[in-house]
Amino acid sequence: MICVFSAFILSGQQITGEFGLGLAGAVLLDAFLLRTLLVPALMHLGGRANWWLPGWLDRILPHLSIEPATGPPAQPRDRQRPQPQHAAR
Predict the structure, then answer these.
(1) So what's the pLDDT on residue 86?
(2) C-beta separation of 23 from 11 below 8 A
(3) Quick one: which of 35, 29, 4 has its CA closest to 19?
(4) Which residues lie below 8 Å from residue 43, measured CB to CB, with a gap of 6+?
């Protein structure tokens, strides 16, 4: 997007070039500085507080799960080994 908006500068019209320069600068600031540097740094500093959800909102929102609900783990069965059959002679 920066290249496309920068190409507006070469259009020969002053107003279009100014818009292109402004949009290219905004994309550069947003995409590269804010989203790759500032947001991860602040999330690292915030730690677990980033994922805090107020109790009243937690009660209102539905609880969605990707995995199906599972019951308690199955207990292993005590299987008896079948006794080998001795052929009658």
Answers:
(1) 67
(2) no
(3) 4
(4) 50
Residue 37, SS3 per DSSP: helix
With contact defined as beta carbons under 8 Å apart, do 20 and 9 qualify?
yes
Give the HSE-up count for residue 65: Cα atoms under 13 Å, Cβ half-sphere: 5
Instruction: Give the CA angle between residues 49, 29, 47 to the nearest 5°.
Output: 10
pLDDT tens profile 42-69 = 999 999 999 899 999 999 999 888 887 7
Tell the residue number behind the tokens 């207990």, with chain if given.
Answer: 75
Q: Per-domain residue ranges for the chain?
A: 2-48
Q: Which of 45, 26, 46, 23 is nearest to 34 (CA)?
A: 26
